[in-house]
Amino acid sequence: MSNHDKRQRILSAATTVFAERDFHRVLVSEVASRAGVGKGTVYLYFPTKDDLHRAALEGSLERLAAEVERAAEADAPVEALLRDIVLSILRFFWRRHHLLTLVQRYERRTTRRATERRRRVLDAVEGVLARHRLGGGPAGRYLTAAFLLGLARAAILEHAPDDRVETVAARVVDLYLHGVTGRGRAALARQRGAA
Q1: CA distance readout (Å), 145 to 27, 45, 140, 172
Q2: 20 to 30 A Cα–Cα from 131, which one of 14, 32, 77, 114?
Q3: Model pTM?
Q4: Do the beta carbons of residue 169 and residue 85 sit within 8 Å?
């Protein structure tokens, strides 16, 4: 097995194990066992458990950003596009909201990679808004896109235990597009008609 393949197997196993439990409850020996390698091999590729966790998180967030970009590029009505974007984000964090806190801390460190990945997600949302002539001009569209991500984060942290992820995603998008009262629907229909 090549070094790259071995590293990927370790990262895949780590991603699974870290998704199941908090960082402090994960044993490197369990990651090694799931990857089919020795514990020492894990440490050859990742000198500390923190390094392993960071690499697994980076890989997962990269896949999430790519999934959001793919969803945004689809040819569909704005509501469906935004719902798919929100659904991707919610599904990633739904049962692991502790990861959201970790990601927020990680983003605050503003590493270049984290900043670029966050920008890719915002650009995807901005692109959807621009194609559908929503969110104002380019200057205001960034903040408008960030509002959607803020609503998604609130849904991750505040959903009820029996809520379905699809239902919450639809509610987030409805609230985002139409407001709390839903009065924005008529304005959105008028704006679409003018386009």
Answers
A1: 38, 37, 9, 13
A2: 114
A3: 0.79
A4: no
Burial 43-66 (b: 16+ CB within 10 A, else e): eebbeebeebbebbbbebbeebbe
Q: Can you list the positions of beta strands (E) in the chain?
A: none
Say if residue 17 is exposed, middle or buried (CB neighbours under 10 Å; 0-12, 13-18, 19+). buried
**Per residue in 21-73, pLDDT tens?**
777 888 999 999 999 999 999 999 999 998 998 888 888 888 899 999 999 99
What burial class does residue 13 get, using C-beta atoms within 10 Å of its C-beta: 0-12 exposed, 13-18 middle, 19+ buried? Answer: buried
Q: How far is the CA of 157 from the CAs of 58, 94, 186, in angstroms?
A: 21, 9, 31
By residue count, the chain amounts to 195
Give burial (CB, 10 Å; 0-12/13-18/19+) of 11: buried
